[in-house]
């Protein structure tokens, strides 16, 4: 009689094994001086040294999480989004009622404010609107 445990497939933990052609079987050793090691450690961030060197060789970098936008920039962006929604609502209601549409200058002003907010969020700088609010008494 056969052992019942041999009939049940063993559950494997962890990732599936790589196909034989992709298995990493070669090891290299690199000697670095303290300055080079410090540079490697500074560049690799949270990656292990070997992972970073493989990523550098293959130019396959892990995705980088975007920096969070500051609360003031989120608020400014929310105001601009609200203004855009109001313009869209005005355009839609004007289309059905025959009323006049917002001027191109008004739309341009809102779009420039949105652009300023997005650029400030990307670079971490304050928007023109935030600077104006800080300087107003």
Descriptors:
137 residues; mainly alpha; elongated
The biggest sheet, with number of strands, parallel, antiparallel or mixed sense and barrel status, is: none
- Oligomer kind: single chain
Q: What is the overall shape?
A: elongated
Classify the beta-strand content into a percent band: under 5%
Radius of gyration: 29 Å
Terminal CA distance reads 92 Å
Q: What is the domain tally?
A: 2
Task: Please give the share of residues in helix.
Answer: 55-70%
Overall pLDDT score = 78
How many strands? 0
- SS-based class: mainly alpha
Which spans of ≥5 residues are poorly predicted at pLDDT below 50?
none
Description:
The protein is elongated and about 75 Å long. It is mostly helical and about 140 residues long. The protein has helices at about 5, 35-45, 50-60, 70-95, 105-125, 130-135. Helix 4 (about 70-95) packs antiparallel against helix 5. The N and C termini lie far apart (about 90 Å). The chain folds into two domains: about 30-65, no CATH class; about 70-135. The longest helix has 27 residues, at about 70-95.
